[in-house]
Every structure is written in C-alpha cells, then in structure tokens.
C-alpha cells in the first residue's frame, strides 16, 4: 500500500480541467498525495454552469472514495441540499477529520456542513483590508465554522491571508507577484491547504504552506 496520504476531493468535474476536482487531483499529486475524486456535477464547457449528476451516482462515488479513510477531504461545489446532506453523512461517518470546505454555500446548507469542517476557505473579494477580512471570518464563525481562512487580501505591495482559528488570528503575508491570471488558482489554494493538512501539519503550518504554493504557481505561470 502506498505511504502517500489519501485525500478525497468532492466537487464539480470541469472538462477543461483547469478547475474542479481534476485540478484538485493535480495539485494533491504534485504535493505527494493520492487523490480519490467524487464528482457532484459536470461542467461540459469552460464557462458553463455546473450540471448536477444523479444523486445515486454521487452516493456511489462517496462509498467508493471513502472505502479507505482519507487523511483529509476537500469539499467544493455541491449542487443541492440533498447532495450536501449525503456528503455530510458520509464524511461524518467515515472521515470526520481535516475537512476543508471551499464552496459558495446557500445559507440553508451552512448549519450542517460548516461545523463539520476543520476550516472554511473563502476569497477576500471586496473585503481586501485586514479589518474587513476579520469581519468576513467572524461572520462565518458565527454561522458555525470552527476556523476560517480568508485569502487574497492586499496591503501595499503585499498579499494577505487571514486565518481565524477559533478566534486566534494569524496574518500571513507575502510579496505581490506580477503575473498573468491563472484559472483555478483559488481552488488550487484550497487543494494545497488540504494536501498539507493530510500530512498532519497544523492548520497554521498548512495555511502558510498553501500560500507559498500559490506564489510558486504564479512565478512559474502554470
């Protein structure tokens, strides 16, 4: 049996492979992990909306992917409340540790999925200064998240990530890198975080390593 840690990636299958679970698997493999994928939806064109897969197919994939207990799990796109419930039930039973949640969740799904996650990853978006990033993390923790990583903030020539781990704030900063836009980079950040958690690194260590990985991707342009 391989000694590389197993990571399960749950989310949309993008045919273009620059985002979604195919891209997640590539990041996890690059960081010396094994990946089992569960597709919740299909994106047949680069800019197309996800098309939900049959619920029974999602349940079958979950059963197969979780036959071996993973070291960490990365949860991305969930198409419906029923799918989310199936994911929550399966993970709670077979893989309750080191779950990274990085989707845009409808409010109705937050009550069950957020408390299960070791960390919820969100982009800073318009909340790019530290005060706004802290508020964004606090809102998610109020909604049930144990820890929140807000990525992609900015201050001067620095890029900021803010980790709120149960109210303990850690700010990670790195130099801004002038580079062309890379599709799927935000998803790669969450995947790298998950891969490092699978190595049993602390959340702060994994967040710092994920930030370094994103910087590496920008420098090499892919």
Give a nutshell description of this structure:
This protein is of the alpha/beta class and about 220 residues long. It is about 40% helix and about 25% strand.
Walk me through this protein's architecture:
The protein starts with 5 loop residues before the first strand and ends with a helix. A hairpin with a 2-residue loop joins strand 8 (158-165) and strand 9 (168-175). The chain is globular and about 50 Å long. It has helices spanning 20-30, 55-65, 81-94, 107-113, 130-142, 185-198, 203-220, and strands at 6-14, 34-43, 51-52, 72-75, 99-101, 119-123, 147-155, 158-165, 168-175. It is built from seven helices and nine strands. The protein has a nine-stranded mixed sheet. It has a single domain (6-220), classed as 3-Layer(aba) Sandwich (UDP-N-acetylmuramoyl-L-alanine:D-glutamate ligase), CATH 3.40.1190. The protein is of the alpha/beta class and 222 residues long.
């Amino acid at each position: 049996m391989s000694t590389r840690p197993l990571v399960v990636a749950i989310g949309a299958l993008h045919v273009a492979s620059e985002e979604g679970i195919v891209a997640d698997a590539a990041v996890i493999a690059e960081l010396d992990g094994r990946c089992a994928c569960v597709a919740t939806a299909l994106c047949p064109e680069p800019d197309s909306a996800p098309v939900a897969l049959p619920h029974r197919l999602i349940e079958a994939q979950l059963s197969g992917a979780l036959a071996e207990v993973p070291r960490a799990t990365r949860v991305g796109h969930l198409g419906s409340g029923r799918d989310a419930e199936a994911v929550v039930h399966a993970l709670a039973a077979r893989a309750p540790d080191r779950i990274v949640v990085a989707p845009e969740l409808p409010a109705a799904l937050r009550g069950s999925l957020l408390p299960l996650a070791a960390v919820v990853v969100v982009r800073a978006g318009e909340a790019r200064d530290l005060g706004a990033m802290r508020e964004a993390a606090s809102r998610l923790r109020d909604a049930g998240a144990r820890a929140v990583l807000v990525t992609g903030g900015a201050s001067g020539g620095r890029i900021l990530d803010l980790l709120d781990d149960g109210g303990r704030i850690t700010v990670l900063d790195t130099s801004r890198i002038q580079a062309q836009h890379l599709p799927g980079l935000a998803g790669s950040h969450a995947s790298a975080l998950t891969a490092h958690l699978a190595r049993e690194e602390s959340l702060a260590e994994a967040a710092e390593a994920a930030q370094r990985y994103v910087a590496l991707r920008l420098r090499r342009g892919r």
